[in-house]
Design a protein that fits this description.
CATH class of one domain: Mainly Alpha
CATH topology of one domain: Tex N-terminal region-like
Largest sheet: 5 strands, mixed
CATH superfamily of one domain: Tex N-terminal region-like
Structural class: alpha/beta
Helix content: 40-55%
Shape: globular
Radius of gyration: 33 Å
Strand order of the largest sheet: 6-5-4-7-8
């Protein structure tokens, strides 16, 4: 591990050297972020997942910078251009931008106007002009006229020399730094509608004639303008004041007011317009895109975390209905483990006679399969189906819940769904997914690619590799925070457990199918290809509800079982007594069990787990109902006060489902009576809220809401 990297990260993140070094070593050894945060607190000084992830990402960035540095040094050495001074500059470069600036004059080029001018023998003239000494420019330039080389006139010679000077200006490190700073401080985004596309590009109306500072433009507007440009509706530029740019360059390269200086001024203007401005504009566009991506990924990740950690109904017998008008409503019944036990189709919206018959059918199914809750997808006909179900005389204990079905169609058509339900069509699979989402959102949603779940903004415009990394981090964090029941979990859920992955997850499922339920965590070691390292990383996050050892249902890691045994022996009781008896636990003297390897943070975690073994960090489930009679956007009126569920949070506000198949927007200014900088300060995805309707735009299908 590079010591310079450790020092740099320590300073940047305001941490201790030992923390960064220990975390880096654990990561290099293959430890996961959740494992390090939960079970190696003594080594890292109790760093949380956020800090550990930052250390991991910064190590990755610095190592990638080093790889690029090595490639540049090798390229220069192979070309015979590497001097001691150049090597020193490259070694000292701390950013990729600076590294590329240094390398720019030496990197292989395509054939440019400057290249052609050099071939004509005009480089000495260019050097002479750039020196701007007192010379007879006309007389000197005439010496370079050579019709065989294509220099037919005085102007040809001067133009070629200016092309070479323009390239030098473009490659000047100081000039690029100053122009880059100008773009960052005074640059603006300018977007205009492509002529003739006004009607077709109406959704980008806000950007038909828009200007905004590069430094303050928020993520969602940057991504919106870029998407409008990509779709062919907008013309987008990033530019600073041109006179400021040329003034900066003239101050760097123009030394007087003679004839040579006039040529340099012409070269400055040409260099800026033709070379430097497009080059830096591309850089700034990439930089602002990266910044916008980071913000969007952060918003997306937080939304996903909240959605994955939404409260679960738990193990109940559930009826799930995927609603529809013409094609009917798909009905499935699931047992308490989520297994499919019955399928049906009802057509309650086609006639009163059919509705009456289907009511009897639903009532009989509820009785037959001891249904404890009914989940209804929130797609087409959901409110009508909810009204139909609520009219049926069902036992009072049966809850009727509208479930967000975003991504269910993605799951139902996936390879995962086909493997699980090879004999059923996609409509049945979709209904099963809706029911399981009610029982355990986390276990079901991990089967769907995170960006298809329906939270976030502009997810298809974001750097897909960065998005995947960010969202995978969230899924892994959530799965390991909740813990996974090893004997019932799907391979899709198991693969996110620390240290496992897809292959080991499949191996575990295959092993339990062949040998029956695992009765202890220790039996994991018998799973093919699950070695000591994978066991160490995974064991603490896996649960066995009725295992041989009571600690197997807790988050106490097997490596700490001896500590708990010592605690119970010290008090003359069993481990189970410790878990059942608060008075007994209160007698534990943690100081007695501190060793060089195990410190107080781990011991406090152990005691906490003994109190609530395998506790679920998710909130308790609470049923929710929309207002009856408000079922489509035409039913919504200004001034109405309605209950809703937050479905998505963006940088500019929160979207709320009020039960009309069109989410309303609570702009950030309407989230609270106080000033709000980040919507996540006020609301969370899946939160139940009360909103007031500010306005309804039927033409654009937009609903404006307020939470004030």
């Amino acid at each position: 591990m590079d010591k310079e990297h450790i020092v740099k990260i320590t300073e940047e993140l305001n941490l201790k050297t030992e923390q960064v070094q220990a975390t880096g070593l654990l990561l290099d050894e293959g430890a996961t972020v959740p494992f390090i945060a939960r079970y190696r607190k003594e080594a890292t000084g109790t760093l949380d997942e956020v800090a550990i992830t930052r250390i991991r990402d910064r190590f990755t960035q610095l190592r990638e910078l080093d790889k690029r540095r090595e490639a540049i040094l090798k390229s220069l050495e192979d070309a015979g251009k590497l001097t001691d001074e150049l090597k020193k500059k490259i070694t000292a470069a701390e950013t990729l931008t600076l590294l590329e600036d240094i390398y720019l004059p030496y990197r292989p080029k395509r054939r440019t106007r400057a290249t052609i001018a050099r071939e004509k023998g005009l480089e000495p003239l260019a050097k002479l002009i750039l020196e701007q000494e007192e010379i007879d420019l006309q007389e000197e330039s005439l010496l370079y006229i050579d019709t065989e080389k294509g220099v037919a006139s005085l102007e040809d010679a001067l133009a070629g020399a200016r092309d070479i000077i323009a390239e030098w200006i473009n490659e000047d490190q100081q000039g690029r730094v100053k122009i880059r700073e100008l773009f960052a401080s005074k640059g603006v985004f300018r977007s205009k509608i492509v002529s003739g596309k006004e009607e077709e590009g109406l959704k980008y109306k806000d950007y038909f004639d828009w200007e905004e500072s590069v430094g303050t433009a928020p993520s969602h507007r940057v991504l919106a303008m870029r998407r409008g440009e990509k779709e062919g509706f907008l013309i987008l530029r990033v530019v600073p004041p041109e006179e400021d740019a040329t003034s900066i360059l003239e101050s760097l390269f123009v030394k007087g007011d003679g004839e040579s200086s006039k040529q340099v001024i012409m070269a400055v203007h040409d260099s800026y317009k033709r070379l430097l401005s497009p080059s830096i504009e591309t850089e700034i566009r990439l930089e602002t895109k990266k910044r916008a991506d980071e913000t969007a990924i952060k918003v997306f990740a937080e939304n996903l975390r909240q959605l994955l950690l939404a409260s679960s109904l738990g193990q109940k017998n559930v009826m799930a209905i995927d609603p529809g008008f013409r094609t009917g409503c798909k009905v499935v019944c699931l047992d308490r483990q989520g297994a499919l036990v019955h399928t049906d189709v009802i057509y309650p919206h086609q006639s009163d006679e059919r509705s009456s018959k289907d009511s009897e059918n639903i009532a009989k199914l509820c009785e037959r399969f001891k249904v404890e809750a009914i989940a209804i997808g929130n797609g087409t006909a959901s409110r009508e189906t909810e009204a139909f179900v609520k009219k049926i005389k069902l036992p009072e204990h049966i809850q009727v819940v509208i479930v967000n079905e975003s991504g269910a169609s993605i799951y139902s058509a996936s390879e995962v769904a086909r493997e699980e339900f090879p004999d059923y069509d996609i409509t049945v699979r979709g209904a099963v997914s809706i029911g399981r989402r009610l029982m355990d959102p986390l276990a079901e949603l991990v089967k769907i690619e995170p960006k298809s779940i329906g939270v976030g903004q502009y997810q298809h415009d974001i750097d897909q590799n960065a998005l995947k990394q960010g969202l995978d981090d969230v899924v892994i964090s959530c799965v390991n925070a909740v813990g996974v029941e090893i004997n019932t979990a799907s391979p899709q859920l198991l693969q996110y457990v620390s240290g496992l992955g897809p292959q080991l997850a499949r191996n575990i499922v295959a092993y339990r199918n062949e040998h029956g339920p695992l009765t202890s965590r220790a039996k994991l070691k018998k799973v093919p290809k699950l070695g000591p390292k994978a066991f160490e990383q995974a064991a603490g996050f896996l649960r066995i509800r009725d295992g041989e050892n009571p600690l197997d249902r807790s988050a106490v890691h097997p490596e700490s079982y001896k500590i708990v045994d010592a605690m119970s022996k010290d008090l003359g009781c069993s481990v189970q007594d410790l878990m059942d008896n608060e008075e007994m636990r209160s007698k534990i003297n943690l100081e007695k069990f501190v060793t060089d390897a195990v410190g107080m943070p781990t011991l406090l975690d152990i005691k906490d787990e003994l109190t609530k073994p395998g506790r679920d960090p998710r909130e308790k489930f609470e049923a929710f109902s929309f207002v009856e009679g408000v079922e489509k956007i035409e039913d919504v009126e200004e001034g109405m006060q309605l209950p809703g569920i937050v479905t998505n949070i963006t940088a500019f506000g929160a979207f709320v489902d009020i039960g009309v198949h069109q989410d309303g927007l609570v702009h950030i200014s309407q989230l609270s009576n106080r000033f709000v900088k980040d919507p996540n300060e006020v609301v969370k995805v899946h939160q139940k809220v009360q909103v007031t309707v500010l306005g309804v735009d039927l033409q654009r299908s937009r609903i404006s809401l307020s939470m004030k």
